[in-house]
Amino acid sequence: MTKSQKMRQEISEIIKYSIEKVLPDVAVKEELNNLQLNNVYVVAIGKASWRMAKATADVLGKCIKKGIVITKYGHSEGNIEKFIIYEAGHPLPDENTIKATDEVLKMVSNLSENDTVLFLVSGGGSALFEKPAEGVTLENIMKITDKLMKSGANIYELNTVRKHLSQVKGGRFAEHVAPAKLKVLVLSDVLGDRLDMIASGPAYPDSTTSEDALLILKKYKINIDENIKQVILRETPKSVNNATHTIIGNVEKVCQAAASKAIELGYNPMIFTTTLQGEAREAAKFIMSIAKEVIKNNRPVGVPAALIFGGETTVQVRGNGVGGRNQELALAAALDIAGMKNVVLASVGTDGTDGPTDAAGGIIDGDSVQRMKNSGVNPVKYLENNDSYNALKSSGDLLITGPTGTNVNDIIVVLISD
Ligand SMILES: Nc1ncnc2c1ncn2[C@@H]1O[C@H](COP(=O)(O)OP(=O)(O)O)[C@@H](O)[C@H]1O
Ligand SMILES: O=C(O)[C@@H](CO)OP(=O)(O)O
Ligand SMILES: [Mg+2]
């Protein structure tokens, strides 16, 4: 085995271990074990909702009256007693989203103040839990969110707009549940763990305003009809008094896990940030500038080193290729370190899907670009066309995990050895 092959294997091990450490099962059970709850209604939304619901059913069992899971297509792992399980569209909502959300609203509509809704929230919830505001259609929401996503808007901007077009986001779901109470367990996939942004904060007071939403649409040059503008001008709740929130997992945990596995494998780990953001290809260059500093000057960490970054970059999609922000970061990184020895990078979405592809991300090294060229791929052109998936496929650099059952943002690891 060559050095580079060994490092690729080690980086895969680090990623696998870290994702296992942020599966929500244990954290949900720990949180629920000491609770006295009777007649609980459970609503679970997002890409990790099936696992969160399963852990809940294991702990609360008989105390559950009824539960509903809404997760992304291909993310259900089977039946759970007393639960109805829906799969729906992501990152754009679809008819199944609306159907499942209506079922949730029906379930919580006549509860009393003695009832509790256990609300299990994970990223993906914005697309998977949706009932358009009066005067807005599903198509309106699909079009506006699609445009925002492709223009490189970050998750705060995207969800500020989503919250103002919805009957269940930005605290409005909590109003539906009242007078019953909500206990909300949250798996965070948003920079800074902002509770009003994760899945668009269905039970959390909204910190954004109608004016913010309109300014974001203007910034990205997205035109809306007057009737949509009027809907956006209806303000979201700024206080919610029937919900308590607890964060049970986040990107911090996944970075810590990566650091401990790196130590086990003999690397000096350093977590640089848990809030990486910006255009994916620019982030790649910045990350590799640090790698080069480590190689040249053993700064700010000595070789063998594991550089760890958590967060979520964005991509302005200009071409018509296939990819995701992690694959795009990996491709740009491959171009930056072409020909270099003993450097390997992995960039991975912890949910197991990066963009509209079946890959979780990519693992690249100094020979990736040569491998692409050998198979007739011009990596610069592919990057220009946002076709990172096919570029990484040609060099054998895609990381494919399938849905992981969790969702705590993205992790980037760089291994450097002598
Ligand atoms: N060809 C592409 N290359 C890079 N990114 C893309 C491409 N097509 C779509 N995307 C990005 O993928 C994002 C959705 O990816 P996804 O992994 O589902 O996000 P999340 O995990 O945060 O839900 C969109 O915001 C869009 O910018
Ligand atoms: O649902 C959402 O709003 C976001 C953030 O929580 O999740 P994802 O990026 O996975 O769609
Ligand atoms: Mg996201």
UniProtKB/TrEMBL annotation:
Keywords: Kinase, Transferase. Pfam families: DUF4147 (PF13660), MOFRL (PF05161). InterPro entries: GK-like_C_sf (IPR037035), GK_N_sf (IPR038614), MOFRL (IPR007835), MOFRL_assoc_dom (IPR025286), MOFRL_protein (IPR039760). The keyword Transferase applies. GO terms for molecular function: kinase activity. Gene3D superfamilies: Glycerate kinase, MOFRL-like N-terminal domain (3.40.50.10180), MOFRL domain (3.40.1480.10). It comes from the Bacteria. This is Glycerate kinase.
